[in-house]
Fur family transcriptional regulator
Amino acid sequence: MQREPDFTQLKIRQMEERCRESGLAITVQRRVIIEALSERSDHPSADQLYEAVRGRLRGISRTTVYRVLETLVGIGVVQKISNPEAKARFDADTVRHHHLYCSRCQKIQDLSDPALDTIVLPTAGLGGFAITDFSINFSGLCPACRSFQSP
Ligand SMILES: [Zn+2]
Ligand SMILES: [Zn+2]
C-alpha cells in the first residue's frame, strides 16, 4: 500500500493533537519517531527504528525509543501489529488493513482488500466477548523469497 505524500505531516499533526488531549508534552523524540515510522511501510521493529533515528537525534537511547513507541501506541497514533515473531513490529497506519508476513525474511507488507473487510464475524464461541475490530495476517513467502527457493 502506497503512503499518501502528506502522510507524515498528517501523522505528526495527529500525534500533536493526541498528546495535547492526553496532557502529554510534544517532545522532539516523539516527533522524530512518528516522523521516521510514518516515512516507511515495512513495519519496523523498535530496534530498526532506533537505528533509523539514532542519526537524526544525537544521544537518543534504545530505551527511549521503546518508551516513546509504547506511548504512541497508547494514544492510538501507532499500532503494534501481531506477527509470529517475538519482536513487536510497528505501523503508523492505524486505519484497518491487513498484512502479508513472509515467514522466511520476516518482511511485512500491507494488504487492503474490501472483500476482507466484509467477512462475517464469528458469533458463536465468544463467551461474552465483544469484537470491536479485527485484522487478518497471512503468512507465506514474498516474491524475493519465492524466487530464491525455486530452482
Ligand atoms: Zn521474504
Ligand atoms: Zn500495515
The chain has a mean pLDDT of 92.
